[in-house]
C-alpha cells in the first residue's frame, strides 16, 4: 500500500508535470483515500491500545446501577451501590499464565515479607511497574479488594470454637463469592511473638507483597460475620484515604476512649503510606523493644483501657490522636453504617429486620424473583428504593453489614463475663443463620428457625407472596 | 467532514470541468484522505465491536503456555497445563449488576431445587438461554468450574474434627484462589434423610441451578486436600464426558469391587445428562422407596461390600456396570493421576517428594524467582520440563494432586480400625502443611517441620540456592 508521504510526493510530481489523465486522477485519488484509511486505522489501533478499550455496545440495562437515594442528613455523600457502568466484555479477566522475565520488585534481594524488616520503599511505583508488566490486572484495579482473615494454628480451647470459626469462615467465603472478592485465610503466626490481635500486620504486609494486583486489603476478624450479603463497600467515599475503620470521632477526640474505634475490621490500601503505617503500628507490639513503654503510654492516655499491656486498638487510637497529619488525615473513621457492628446492639433486632424485609418482598414482585447467585447485585438498587428510610444504625432496621462478636471469644471460650457462653453461642448461631438465609435463598432453601442450623426448608416459588 | 461519496462526486464534477488550481487540488486531496480515514475508522470500530477484541499488544510471553510434555505411555492425551492463549483484556469479566427482565427458567413455577422433584427438563437449552441473556458469563464458560464441599450442621463428635475440617476448607480455598475457581461450602442437609455421603446430589443439584454460569461442578469431600497447588484439571480430556471419577476400570468390570472407584471426588457437567443421572443415583438413597432393595442388590453385586445398606459409591459402580450406554459411556474413569488419591499410599512419600522438588529448584533459577500468587500458573510449564519423568502414581514422585483421607473420618473420629487416630491425625497435618508450604511460599514463609503447623520461617531470597 502506498504511504501517505509517497502519495503526496506523487501528487507534487504530477502537479509539476502538468495535466493528468482520468486514470491518473483515479489512481492518485485512490492512493490518497487508501493512505488516509491506513493512517486512520493505525491511529485507532494505537488509541485503543493506549486506553485498553473494548468498543462493545453495552447491553440494555434493566436493573441498571443507580446511586443510593441521597441520605437525609446533610452533607453525607450518597452511597453508590454498584459500579457506574455494566461490564460488557466477558472474556476471562486475569492473565495468570504470563510472568514476563523483566525485572521487578520481586527480584530485589532487599525485599522482605517480614513486618520486622523496614518498610519497603517506593512501593507505589513498584506496584505500578508490576501492573504495567501484567496489564490484565491493571483494568479495574482501583476497586479490587482482597479479604484477609485467620485464626490460630492449633485447635481452639473452646470445644466448639473451631466449629464456630468454620462457620464464620464459610460466611466470609459466601460474601466474597457473591461479590467477586478474593480471600486468604491465615492460620499461622508470621511473627511468632506477635500473637493474637498483633498477628494482623505481619499477615497484611505479606499479603500486600503477594498481591500487587489488589488495591485494598480488607482485614476481618475471625469472630465477625457478614449479616448483609448484598451491601457493598462505598469505595468512592474512601478515595482520599488509606485506612478505614469503624468508630466515633467524638469518642476518639473528646472522650479519648480505647473503644472509640474497632481494630477488628479494617480496610487498608495497598500503598506506601500503609507500609509505613503498619511499621509504626507494629512497633507497639510484643516483639518490639518499646512494648512495655507503649503499655504505659497507652494506659495513661486511655483512662478506660482495662489491661496494662500495649494493644493494637489503643495503639491505633493513639496514632489518630497524636499524629493527625501523618496518619489521622488518611484514616477514615466510618460511623454511618455497620462497617463493624457490636453484636449486642444487633442480634436482638434480627427478627424484626427479617420481618421488615419480608414485608417488602411481599409487596415487590421483582424482589421475589429467583435468579442466579452471580447476578444478586442487580437487585440492590431495587431494594434501595424501599430501604431508603430504613436507617443504618441501631435505631434503624437495615440489615447490619458486619456483626462482630467482640467479647465472645469463640476460640478460647474466655468470653467477657458480662454475658454467658450460651448467650454468645446462641447469638452467633442466629446471626450466622440470618446471613446464611440470604445465601441459601439462591440455592432454593432457607432456615425457618434461626437457632436451628440443622434444618432448612424448600422455598416455595414466589415466596413470600 | 466530507463523506467519501461526496468527495467522489466532487472529483467527478471537477474532472468534468477540466483544469484545477493548486488550492483545489489540495482541498479535494485532503477530502479524499480524510474520507478514507473516516471509512477506515468506522470499519475498524465495527470489526472490533463484532469480534469483541481489544487490540492490546500481547506482552512478550516468557513463560508462555505450552502443553505438558507428551506422556510416555502410548495413546495418552498430553495434559495441557494452561489455556492455549493469554488473556490480554483485563476488564472485569462478569457483569453482576444486570439481570434482564426477560423470562428464563427461573420464572418457571415448576422449577424445583429439590433432588426429590423430577429432574429439570431441557436444562441444556435453559442454560444456553440464560447465558444469552447474560453474555458476560458466556465467554470462557466451557472451562468454568465451581467447587462444592461441605460438612455437617452440628459440631463434630471428634474434639479436633472441626479444627481439621477448617484446615481442609482453607486448603480448598487456597487452591481455588490460585486458579480463579469459585467455591461453595454447604453445611446443612438439603434433604434431611439424605445424610452423610448421600448429601452430595441434593447439594450439587441446587448448586447447578444456582450457577448456570458454571459448566462443571467439582464435588470434593471435606476430608480431601489439594497436595499439588499448581496442577490443573486437564478439561480437554473430558470433552466428551459428563462425569469424572477416579478409579480402575479393571476393578470395575472384572473384579466388580465396590472400591473400584471413589465417589468422594467427582467432576460433573452442569447439563441435562447430569440432572437425569443424579436423579437415578439419588433414587438409591435413604429417602427413596427403593433404599432397602438397593441395599440387597448392591450387596449381592459387590462381594467385597462391607455393610448391608445401600451406599452411593456402590451405586455409582453399579450404574457403570449395568447401564453402559446410558451412563457408563459418559463417565470418565480417571486413573492416570491422583484425581483422588488414597492417603495411605501417599503420605509416606511426601518427604521424598519435597526433596526431589527442592533439588529441581536448586538447579533452576527461574523456579526460585519470587512472584505474585496470581501468576503462579506461569511457572507450570517450566516445572513440567523437569517433571516429565517424575511419574504421577505411587511409583513416581510428582506431588499428588488430591490426597483423600478415606477411612480417617476426621469429623466423627470413627476411623477405620486398620490405623490409629494418631496416625490419621499426623498424616492429615503433614499433608496439609505440605500443601500449605506451596501457598505460603508466595507470602514469604514456609513450615520447616511438616508436623508442626504452628511454626513458619521466613524464606530467604533465592531459596533454596
TrEMBL record, chains A, B:
One of its GO terms (cellular component) is endosome. It is a single-pass type II membrane protein. One of its GO terms (molecular function) is galactosyltransferase activity. Pfam families: Glyco_transf_34 (PF05637). InterPro entries: Glyco_trans_34, Nucleotide-diphossugar_trans. The chain crosses the membrane at residues 30-53. It is found in: Golgi apparatus membrane. This is Glycosyltransferase 7. It comes from Olea europaea subsp. europaea.
Amino acid at each position: 500500500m502506498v504511504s501517505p508521504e509517497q502519495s503526496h510526493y506523487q501528487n507534487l510530481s504530477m502537479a509539476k508535470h502538468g495535466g493528468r489523465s482520468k486514470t491518473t486522477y483515479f489512481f492518485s485519488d485512490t492512493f490518497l483515500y487508501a493512505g488516509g484509511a491506513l493512517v486512520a486505522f493505525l491511529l485507532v489501533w494505537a488509541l485503543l491500545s493506549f486506553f485498553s478499550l473494548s468498543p462493545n455496545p453495552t447491553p440494555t440495562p434493566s436493573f441498571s446501577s443507580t446511586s443510593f437515594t441521597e441520605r437525609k442528613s446533610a452533607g453525607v455523600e450518597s452511597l453508590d451501590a454498584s459500579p457506574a457502568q455494566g461490564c460488557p466484555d466477558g472474556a476471562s479477566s486475569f492473565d495468570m499464565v504470563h510472568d514476563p522475565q523483566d525485572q521487578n520488585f520481586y527480584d530485589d534481594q532487599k525485599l522482605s515479607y517480614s513486618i520486622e524488616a523496614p518498610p519497603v520503599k517506593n512501593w507505589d511505583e513498584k506496584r505500578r511497574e508490576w501492573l504495567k508488566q501484567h496489564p490484565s490486572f491493571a483494568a479495574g484495579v482501583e476497586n479490587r479488594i482482597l479479604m484477609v482473615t485467620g485464626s490460630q494454628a492449633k485447635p481452639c480451647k473452646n470445644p466448639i470454637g473451631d466449629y464456630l470459626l468454620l462457620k464464620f469462615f464459610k460466611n466470609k467465603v459466601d460474601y466474597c463469592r457473591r461479590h467477586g472478592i478474593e480471600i486468604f485465610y491465615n492460620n499461622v503466626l508470621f511473627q511468632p511473638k506477635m500473637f493474637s490481635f498483633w498477628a494482623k500486620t505481619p499477615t497484611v504486609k505479606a499479603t500486600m507483597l503477594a498481591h500487587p494486583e489488589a488495591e485494598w486489603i480488607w482485614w476481618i476478624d475471625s469472630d465477625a460475620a457478614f449479616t448483609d450479603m448484598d451491601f457493598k463497600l462505598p469505595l468512592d467515599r474512601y478515595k482520599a484515604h488509606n485506612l478505614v475503620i469503624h468508630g466515633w470521632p467524638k469518642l476518639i477526640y473528646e472522650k479519648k476512649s480505647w473503644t472509640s474505634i474497632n481494630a477488628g475490621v479494617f480496610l487498608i490500601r495497598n500503598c506506601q503510606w500503609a507500609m509505613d503505617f503498619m511499621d509504626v503500628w507494629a512497633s507497639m507490639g510484643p516483639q518490639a523493644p518499646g512494648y512495655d513503654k507503649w503499655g504505659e503510654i497507652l494506659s495513661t492516655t486511655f483512662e478506660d483501657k482495662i489491661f496494662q499491656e500495649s494493644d493494637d486498638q489503643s495503639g491505633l487510637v493513639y496514632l489518630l490522636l497524636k499524629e493527625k497529619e501523618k496518619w489521622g488525615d488518611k484514616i477514615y473513621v466510618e460511623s454511618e453504617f455497620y462497617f463493624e457492628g457490636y453484636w449486642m446492639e444487633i442480634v436482638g433486632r434480627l427478627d424484626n429486620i427479617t420481618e421488615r424485609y419480608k414485608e417488602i418482598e411481599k409487596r415487590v414482585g421483582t424482589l421475589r424473583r429467583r435468579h442466579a447467585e452471580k447476578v444478586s447485585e442487580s437487585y440492590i438498587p431495587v431494594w434501595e428504593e424501599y430501604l431508603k428510610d430504613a436507617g443504618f444504625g441501631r435505631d434503624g432496621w437495615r440489615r447490619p453489614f458486619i456483626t462482630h462478636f467482640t467479647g465472645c471469644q469463640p476460640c478460647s471460650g474466655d468470653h467477657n463475663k458480662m454475658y454467658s457462653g450460651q448467650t454468645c453461642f446462641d447469638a452467633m448461631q442466629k446471626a450466622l443463620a440470618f446471613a446464611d438465609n440470604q445465601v441459601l435463598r439462591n440455592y432454593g432453601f432457607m432456615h425457618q428457625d434461626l437457632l436451628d442450623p440443622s434444618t432448612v426448608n424448600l422455598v416455595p416459588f414466589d415466596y413470600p407472596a
